[in-house]
Automatic annotation (TrEMBL):
Belongs to the ABC transporter superfamily. The lineage of its organism: Bacteria, Pseudomonadati, Pseudomonadota, Gammaproteobacteria, Pseudomonadales. GO terms for cellular component: plasma membrane. This is ATP-binding cassette domain-containing protein. One of its GO terms (molecular function) is ATP hydrolysis activity. It comes from Pseudomonas spelaei. It is found in: Cell inner membrane.
């Protein structure tokens, strides 16, 4: 479980996250929507300790992310993260790219890492691309490779930050389908997305971010279907 409690985050004197509280339960899918600059990506970075916070706390399975004694490398092993784009190593095959972290970080043998990588690449529909170089993949295939790479670490949580926003429209669907499959498998997920219809479909809860705060949160049908706040409605109108 991820427990975010009154988190404040600033860059210099720019306050970006201004007191966010949010709990993500095991098996839950929570989508974060909101305008540009509202602090969505920053919050994800704080969840896996890529950015320090100024106030509040974030606990993952009870472990304080920003405590000085916390082993961040260990913590990050259970949190997979997929960004807009992931730059794979161009001189390594798809399979080798996905094998890398299990070998280097988890200390798996080559055979074990290969088994894990093949399994996850097959799971995301890239079983026939193992020996291909990343440059030969479509954008959608590259994003699915990024998902397989994260999954090969056997994470308990997956964070997605606009995983489809750099893709041509016709490639978005295949990546969303992969994310939907993960959600259906019971993965605990936090998704920053502007695919509103998808968020409504797969999420247990949707949080609308505004100005560094959770402005509105609730079931997808409530937040997206009948928002309480005018700002939420305005945002939804602007992205439709
Ligand atoms: N490393 C950084 N240094 C300084 N300012 C930053 C840094 N990262 C983000 N910011 C600022 O923090 C604010 C929030 O950024 P963030 O990336 O979290 O927004 P976002 O909600 O993800 O927006 P978008 O929808 O455009 O991705 C922005 O004003 C941004 O310029
Ligand atoms: Mg962002």
């Amino acid at each position: 479980m991820i427990e975010i409690d009154n988190v404040h985050k600033s860059f210099g004197n720019l306050d970006v996250v201004k007191g966010v509280s949010l709990t993500v339960n095991k098996g839950e899918v929570v989508s974060i929507i909101g305008g540009s600059g509202s602090g969505k990506s920053t919050l994800l970075m704080c969840i896996n300790g890529l950015e320090p916070i100024q106030k509040g706390s974030i606990r993952v399975d009870g472990v304080e992310v920003h405590h000085h004694a916390t082993d961040l490398n260990r913590l990050r092993q259970k949190i997979g993260i997929v960004f807009q784009q992931w730059n794979a190593f161009p001189h390594l095959t798809v399979l080798e790219n996905v094998m890398l972290a299990p070998r280097k970080v988890l200390g798996k043998s080559t055979a074990e890492a290969e088994e894990l990588a093949v399994q996850q690449l097959t799971h995301v529909g890239l079983g026939d691309k193992l020996k291909v170089f990343p440059g030969k993949l479509s954008g959608g295939q590259q994003q699915r490779m990024a998902i397989a790479r994260a999954l090969a670490m056997s994470p308990d949580y997956m964070l997605f930050d606009e995983a489809t926003s750099a893709l041509d429209p016709q490639l978005v669907g295949e990546v969303l389908d992969t994310m939907r499959m993960l959600a259906e498998d019971g993965m605990t997920m936090v998704l920053v997305t502007h695919e509103i219809r998808f968020a409504r479909d797969v999420s247990d809860r949707v949080a609308f971010f505004r100005n560094g705060l959770v402005h509105e949160i609730g079931s997808p049908d409530q937040v997206i279907g009948s928002p309480v706040h005018a700002e939420t409605a305005d945002f939804l109108k602007s992205v439709r």
